[in-house]
Amino acid sequence: MSDFWISEEPLDVQVVIERVTRREAGAINTFIGTVREFTHGKRTLYLEYEAYKPMAEKKLSEIGEEIKNTWPDSKTAIVHRVGRLDITDIAVIIAVSTPHRADSYEASRYAIERIKEIVPIWKKEHWENGEKWIGDQKENKAGIPSKEAMK
């Protein structure tokens, strides 16, 4: 099984961590994206995610290669959930292992920004008074943060 996949089932953090656990890694950084209840004062009831699965998994793998090229001693696993997600459900898990912690933090941040930028996953927000497909996952922040912005 690949280390980069789309799932219709609830996500398990431990499964993703196990994909990157190795003896030479002194750090494993995990990012867990969850469904929040309020966005800009608007109450969310639930979210629906859809993806073009073959392309989404290919792009997740591409992000893993980009991370490997930038942080050569890293190992990355990423899973994103699709379907209906309720408040507090996990939407995405990123795990990055590296020999030292600074690289794992940076690589993890890089991964979530790239997911929002290049992976074909769409989100439909359902509120108390309506619903809307969100085509741009970047929401308010565009691009990949520079190393200075991540400090």
Automatic annotation (TrEMBL):
It catalyses: 2 [molybdopterin-synthase sulfur-carrier protein]-C-terminal-Gly-aminoethanethioate + cyclic pyranopterin phosphate + H2O = molybdopterin + 2 [molybdopterin-synthase sulfur-carrier protein]-C-terminal Gly-Gly + 2 H(+). Its EC number is 2.8.1.12. The keyword Protein biosynthesis does not apply. One of its GO terms (biological process) is Mo-molybdopterin cofactor biosynthetic process. Heterotetramer of 2 MoaD subunits and 2 MoaE subunits. Also stable as homodimer. The enzyme changes between these two forms during catalysis. Pathway: Cofactor biosynthesis; molybdopterin biosynthesis. Converts molybdopterin precursor Z into molybdopterin. This requires the incorporation of two sulfur atoms into precursor Z to generate a dithiolene group. The sulfur is provided by MoaD. This is Molybdopterin synthase catalytic subunit. Keywords: Molybdenum cofactor biosynthesis, Transferase. The keyword Membrane does not apply. The lineage of its organism: Bacteria, Bacillati, Bacillota, Bacilli, Bacillales. GO terms for molecular function: molybdopterin synthase activity. Belongs to the MoaE family. It comes from Halobacillus mangrovi. It comes from the Bacteria. It is an enzyme of class 2 (transferase).
